[in-house]
Structure formats: structure tokens, C-alpha cells
Amino acid sequence: MTYGPGSDTGSTGSTGNSSRTGTTGHGAKAAAQLILLWTALLWLLEAVDSVSGHALDTFGIQPRQESELVDVIPAAFMHFGFGHLVANTLPLLVLGFLAALRGTGRFLAVALTIIVVSGLGVWLVAPAASNTAGASGLIFGLFGYLLVRGFVDRRITDVALGGVVAVLYGSILWGVLPTDSGISWQGHLFGLVGGVLAAFMTSSRSGSGAGGKPAWH
């Protein structure tokens, strides 16, 4: 997320390999379609914002004003210029696709949790007179979600995927530090917290081992 102008500062079980392959392929297709549509919406909104003289920038979050609470969700879909949107597009496509592979309904629940936690965090602690918007809070949340999901659900494959995500995007963690006055580290930090929270809230942990303890699978 970035401060805007004017700121002061699938289910398991199958009868054969072909069935599992078909289920996996369908899940990947649905995940790709969802995240492509999500990203296309962001680009459409930015195009509208551009031709309207940046009228949509008002949907950013201005902190500690009660009337701004309604912008907590819309702010995650707005950007301050195409450069801002371009910077968010690729990581959103990659992380969003990986997160949506486990089901589009679960992804939407995860995304909503992240957006709300990130937006409320911005509303509470962002600098006075700032205006914050962008998808980076969601990106940081998806990063955190993918990192811990495997441990929460006790799925070895998801732990491995989290390791790959850490290698590819681990450097973004610098974004939770207050090192750039034009970047909303608050949105990044609370987005990350929201992603971890979402992993627990949407856990699909199943199976049990000896003594009733959840088994790894």
C-alpha cells in the first residue's frame, strides 16, 4: 500500500490418477481465472481513475476518521497511478494464484480477512492526513498466509510451497519496516498479520495420529 497525493508524510479421494489429475487441473484453471479477473478489475479501476482526474483516490483510507471505515475494503482495489499498480501486479498474480489453488471460496475468505485486518491497521496507526490505498497489503497477507498455511494444516506439500514462496519473495519483508515515508509499512505489517490469522481461520486440518494429535499428510 502507498500513501497518496496530499499526504504529509480440492477435496481428497479418487479412484485413479486420471481423476486426481482432472481435479488438480480444474482447480488450477479456476484459480487462474479468479486471480486474472481480480487483477483485471484493478486495471479497469485505475483506468477509470485516470480518465476521471483521479476521482477514485478518495476511496483511500484516511486514518482515525469514522467516515473512512467504509473505505477499508475499497482501498485495496485502488492505486495511485499505473506505476503503483504495475509494481503490485506480478506478485499479486503469483501469490494469488498459489493461494487460490486450494479453492476459490477459501481464497475469497482469506483475501477478505487480510484486506480488513490490513485496512483497519492503516486506519488505526497511519500518519495523520495520509491517504492510503493499494493491493500491497493483500500481497503481504498472501505471502504470510502461504508461509504458515502448511504448518497450520499439517500439509507437507504446502510447507514445501511456503519454502519456495519464502525464497522468491522473502525480501518483501523489508516492507514492514518504516524505512520509506511514501510507503505504508502499516498496511504491509497488518496485511502480514492478517495472512497469518487467515491461515488459522480457514484451516482445513484433517486426520489424526496417535493420541488424537493431528497427522501430517
Structural descriptors:
globular; 2 strands; 217 residues; mainly alpha; 2% strand
Could you give a quick summary of the protein structure above?
The chain is an all-alpha fold.
Question: Secondary structure elements and their pairing?
Answer:
Blueprint: E1 2-3, H1 17-51, H2 82-100, H3 104-125, E2 132-133, H4 136-153, H5 156-169, H6 185-201
Antiparallel strand pairs: 1-2
Structure write-up:
The protein is an all-alpha fold. About 60% of the residues lie in helices and about 0% in strands. The protein contains 6 helices and 2 strands; from the N terminus they run E-H-H-H-E-H-H-H. The protein has helices spanning about 15-50, 80-100, 105-125, 135-155, 155-170, 185-200; strands spanning about 1-5, 130-135. The chain has a two-stranded antiparallel ribbon with strand order 1-2. The two termini are about 35 Å apart. Mean pLDDT is about 90; it is low at about 10-15 and about 205-210.
Strand content: under 5%
Low-confidence stretches: 10-16, 206-210
Helical content band: 55-70%
Give the terminus-to-terminus CA distance.
36 Å
Count of helix runs: 6
The secondary-structure class comes to mainly alpha
Q: Largest beta sheet: what is the strand line-up?
A: 1-2
Number of strands: 2
Described by strand count, sense and barrel closure, the largest sheet is: 2 strands, antiparallel
Element order, helices and strands? Answer: EHHHEHHH
Q: Estimate the global geometry from the Cα principal axes.
A: globular
- Rg calc: 18 Å
What's the average pLDDT?
A: 89
